Amino acid sequence: MKDVQNSADERGIAIQQVGVKEVHLPFRIRTKRGDYQQVFANIRFTVSLPQEFKGTHMSRFLEILMPWSEKPMAEAEMEVMLQEALEHLNAESARLHMDFTYFIGKEAPVSKRYSVLDLDCFFEGSMRKGEPMEFTLGVEVPFTSLCPCSKEISSYGAHNQRSVCRVRLRYRQGYECIYIEDLAELVERQASCPLYPLLKREDERYVTEHAYEHPKFVEDILRDTVLALRHLEGLAWFSLECENFESIHHHNAYASHEESID
Amino acid sequence: MKDVQNSADERGIAIQQVGVKEVHLPFRIRTKRGDYQQVFANIRFTVSLPQEFKGTHMSRFLEILMPWSEKPMAEAEMEVMLQEALEHLNAESARLHMDFTYFIGKEAPVSKRYSVLDLDCFFEGSMRKGEPMEFTLGVEVPFTSLCPCSKEISSYGAHNQRSVCRVRLRYRQGYECIYIEDLAELVERQASCPLYPLLKREDERYVTEHAYEHPKFVEDILRDTVLALRHLEGLAWFSLECENFESIHHHNAYASHEESID
Amino acid sequence: MKDVQNSADERGIAIQQVGVKEVHLPFRIRTKRGDYQQVFANIRFTVSLPQEFKGTHMSRFLEILMPWSEKPMAEAEMEVMLQEALEHLNAESARLHMDFTYFIGKEAPVSKRYSVLDLDCFFEGSMRKGEPMEFTLGVEVPFTSLCPCSKEISSYGAHNQRSVCRVRLRYRQGYECIYIEDLAELVERQASCPLYPLLKREDERYVTEHAYEHPKFVEDILRDTVLALRHLEGLAWFSLECENFESIHHHNAYASHEESID
Amino acid sequence: MKDVQNSADERGIAIQQVGVKEVHLPFRIRTKRGDYQQVFANIRFTVSLPQEFKGTHMSRFLEILMPWSEKPMAEAEMEVMLQEALEHLNAESARLHMDFTYFIGKEAPVSKRYSVLDLDCFFEGSMRKGEPMEFTLGVEVPFTSLCPCSKEISSYGAHNQRSVCRVRLRYRQGYECIYIEDLAELVERQASCPLYPLLKREDERYVTEHAYEHPKFVEDILRDTVLALRHLEGLAWFSLECENFESIHHHNAYASHEESID
Description:
Four copies of one chain form a homotetramer.
Chain A: E1 15-30, E2 36-49, H1 58-68, E3 72-73, H2 75-88, E4 93-107, E5 114-128, E6 134-146, H3 148-153, E7 160-171, H4 180-188, E8 193-194, H5 201-213, H6 218-230, E9 235-244, E10 252-260
Parallel strand pairs in A: 1-3
Antiparallel strand pairs in A: 1-2, 2-4, 4-5, 5-6, 6-7, 6-8, 7-9, 9-10
Helix pairs in contact in A: 1-2
């Protein structure tokens, strides 16, 4: 049968990214404790396409992904998958993006009751032929924020709400990326209060008072997270988005920031 | 050309609903003030299909919808559209569901500054040949809820959050349906505090203290809304869903209830 | 500390459902092969609340859910969870709804290459005190549909598209529920062609020609699935929704149907 | 009352963007014909915050937005809104992003029946103090794609599906931005076939055969759109994403590309 994709193309346009999107697959992610957590990934996997070829071979992305779905997955494994993509698809560059939900253990602050909290995360690896992979970690950390202005101007109470901080970061070559568990904790320390799926009455009292004692604007949480991230050794770049699902409005308060570190 | 849809079917199955979904069109909705508000509707429009016919004629739904897109739309107009569907599609029953966002004016509680708040709403009409239309109104009202338990057990503060109440209701034949504006106000009165898009500092103080003075569980808001709805004259049926986007959890508190009224 | 939820309520309204929603947890689902598949569940868990009590105890839902997250989960286990809810929350009725994505193995039609396909599914159990659990299975099966009218009236080609059939079903007491794997296969047999994540060129030819040889309206797929479901022994009730993401429109073709079986 | 936001901040971090998100408001957009189309906008509106200040004044974003909601909106008006933001919020830079759905008229190819098609669009303006606004237009155009490989290797038929091309573009200062209507037409010309909400049988035959006569990979549509965009006079930058909702897979084919033009 004719290989239409392989036929010559004369438009003179090298395509930067072509591949598959919304591929759903289970993967096993290495945890901080050293074991594995099964996750459900939503994948975008692309390569560059030279101007000479009419099309890429979409089935090869699936052929690369399928066997890895059964094996442990971390930075090193992503590097191998990208190598395979460069070779099997005869490409100059490749990119693999995996969105997944990751669970971390939480102990309630007073009762010490155990529960697990879901975090939306992503791994992204991109690689040019003959160069090392560039790895980006993305983690969304939910928490409570309590408004300093509302507390200051009111005789009692203060509006508070669920918020989220979306962190994305990249390390310099040779440095180990922070664990999701540690990044979540780093962000939670900047919030008015962390979230816990399971809270008994004594815990609810604790989180209510703790948030009231730690009022923070969306700007405060962003700035304190910037300061905390600057202390991570080997960090090359990060971006932050903080968003408060305001309890007093139908819209959100929002702040974002991005830094490259020399 | 052959009319495949019109050909005979021998499987003996009359289909309850067949038609189009995710049709996007602008419509003009009559407001309480007597003028019109342009909305952007997401439409599902279906009819029943007798067992004798292989298929319905999908293009006719669009033919009915298109001219109405320019005209004012309320219960009476929906009734005409359903009549047209029964006739043009030769059907025993027809149903038209329109999701849209509707804006209501809000005055900030102290500064009286004006702003507009968006509510997710739907109109649904269903009709059997020779019978009057059954009309259902759906409105989602967002507001602030403040937790009575958190307030009671804490030395200061109380967790609060954005919440929503989804009301759906139907009237008996011969009764006028409540205006969206009035239904929103009815629900907001049961909340810890209504939402306002635009709040100055004096307003923020007001809503913070007002919510603290009116602590309500998701159960309280549901029950108080049930009591308020029971007072609407001519109401035949309603259902309620209340949901709190908990500021101290990553999950929501939820309550639902449904009543037919004799 | 005061138990506010436990205090008396005098509004006289028994709430039909109250509990938690959007709880995310991993679970292990028993597969047809007899082993387990880890899934990521989105959970709604509710109980009824008698009119005497002001509120339910939200933390208890999490206390019931957490330990089960590590254990295999099927109908029998859901029954135990609902029993625990009835007891620990002192309720007359309880309901547990779990949405999750489930993977089934697929062999490409010609090359026999293996890949896995994701299906959106749900388990729902509801129980009244002293009565057996009522279990509902929901499965969304995606497939290809090819339009018989387009094929008939055109000199060549026929529009086709991705479609989905959402099946929900309940069995009579004493009958075993069908496996997700078998229900998916039952629906796929009614489609113009099943979907496969991984297709080589010889497979692509097969699915193209197979779909062209099996043109089906959304009405046809619905009716043929109705006929197939009526043959399942012990089935008490089912509902179907078929939806074609039309390649020639920006809206969808849709059909739905529901039957109780004596 | 104390102005907490205005108090001094000593962390030394100037925030790049802070403001409001998910603000929903109606706006009136100028059409190609010269009249106005009412749209429903989802807005993100941010400014930079100097390191000296603890917080921005969130209510001012709403104060700027509210009056504009009643007036016609195009590039010139966005420029004024950004000016107001720079002044009222005392900022160095400001950005306004508005997502909205825009309707364009479509005439069926044979029957000439009229209908309207919805396009997801955005306007984004960003401005630094004392500099002209940089305006970005975004438009998502849906269409039909038909696979050249499937057509080539199969005895009859060819898989086809709904697809979308997301175009974003910026002009050099002094050049007029292309109308949404014209950009949609430019993209549709590169597709296997445009979409029409309302098609009679003679039209369905036309679009079926037209798509079959114009097979295109996702790569082809991307490349042909690149070539067409390069001909727009005054264009400074564009990015493209093409995505096919494959009728034979549960995942999508995807290509993206970005170019700055000297």
